[in-house]
Amino acid sequence: MTSPNISVEDVPLNRFHQLLTVRSGGGSFVDGYVLSIVGVALVQMAAGLSLNSFWQGMIAASALIGIFFGGFLGGWLTDRFGRKRVFFVGPILFMLASISQFWVESALVLFLLRFAIGIAVGIEYPVATSLLVEFLPKKNRGPRLATLTILWFAGAAFAYVIGDLILRHGGDESWRLVLASPVVIGAVLFVLRMGTPESPRWLLSKGRAAEAEAVIKQVYGNDFSLRNLPEEPKQKKLSFTSLLHSGYGKRMLFVAMFWTCSVIPVFAVYAFAPKVLAALNLKGDWASFGSVAITFLFVIGCIIATRLINSMGRRRMLIQSFAWSGMALLGLAAFHAGSEVLILTLFGAYALFIGGAQVLQLVYPNELFPTEIRAGAVGVGTSLSRVGAAVGTWLVPMALDSYGIAFTMYAAAIVTFIGLAFSIALAPETRSLNLQQAASLS
Predict the structure, then answer these.
(1) Where does the sequence pass through the membrane (predicted)?
(2) 36 and which of 159, 199, 256, 338 could share a cystine (Cβ 3.0–4.6 Å)?
(3) What is the predicted pLDDT for the residue at 273?
(4) Which pTM does this prediction carry?
(5) Domain limits, the chain
(6) pLDDT, tens digit, for every residue of 12-49?
(7) 240-439 CATH, one of 3.30.1370.20, 1.20.1250.20, 2.70.20.10, 1.10.540.10
């Protein structure tokens, strides 16, 4: 990397990029862990705190409610005070709220602590992804952001493994250790993030050119300077509150709708897989095998999408993902009384094909908005999608009990096809564009 003419978006990946991927991806790993660990502890926790069904539901939903507020807050903080400072807010909140759960004695306090953890998760999405995307080379931007989705599932799987080990060997009060266990991961993440520089793009947006140039030289070498950083599109200064009145309102609508439509069925299916499979007449070993296989195929689908994101392109991948996963859900509705093999095949197809939409949740919002409002846009997408996830998760048991499995699967298919319609109408192609071109309205 010695050419004074090469753009920083065309350089090869270096050690800094690798480390920043770990630093940013650690937030997604913790996110998957902290959101899943409460389910591991639920039975023993409910007995220990004498929780009724109302409080069990509220505690399970508390983190999703926190994410709604955290997404808005994190986006505003990141755009206002910079990526570097806010990068440490999530790990600190993870540690404080997690360790406090060890001494919890009431449902209300546990709800508030889980709510605080949700706020931390909501903050993580805009700060970690915006910082990462603003340093990554163009050709690595999509795959690296998509990898964060895989890390979420890895964190969720790790939670089930660690939580089960603690419950097996920790005694009657081991649920407290289970809930407190994220403090270790939060501490590791905090240490890993020490020494992370500020985004030069954000520094430039605040008129701090000398500091931006110093970061560029630190990351890319002394032969690089501000001349190697592609210039931001010329436009009036943007604030996030004016976003919907600017040309970026259509992009925000697209991000909010496709993100929401892609997570509603996934969260509902993932949270209630055993109940849904039982409604599809899969019981015993078939149900156990099905739950594991579906989780595995969610991960495989995300991995395949990550590998194809540059060759296939963003727009085509999103449209194909919604179309084929929606067809799989229609199949589950139409053939809900079919054989075990057919049901698992259709369920597996849904898990596999939805991977494209899943990985693009963090790619599109980071590419479609300029530096000044990038984190805010990711925060809004995070918040609105979690509203959909919470509503969908809340409705699934009632829909199954009141209307049956066929209706529930048809409803999930309709939501998926709504996402498809918005994608066909609004999804742009950003694969070959640098970050400035992708964020430009011209």
Answers:
(1) 29-47, 53-74, 86-104, 110-133, 145-163, 175-192, 252-274, 286-305, 317-335, 341-364, 376-396, 402-427
(2) 159
(3) 57
(4) 0.80
(5) 15-228, 240-439
(6) 888 999 999 999 998 889 888 888 788 778 778 888 88
(7) 1.20.1250.20
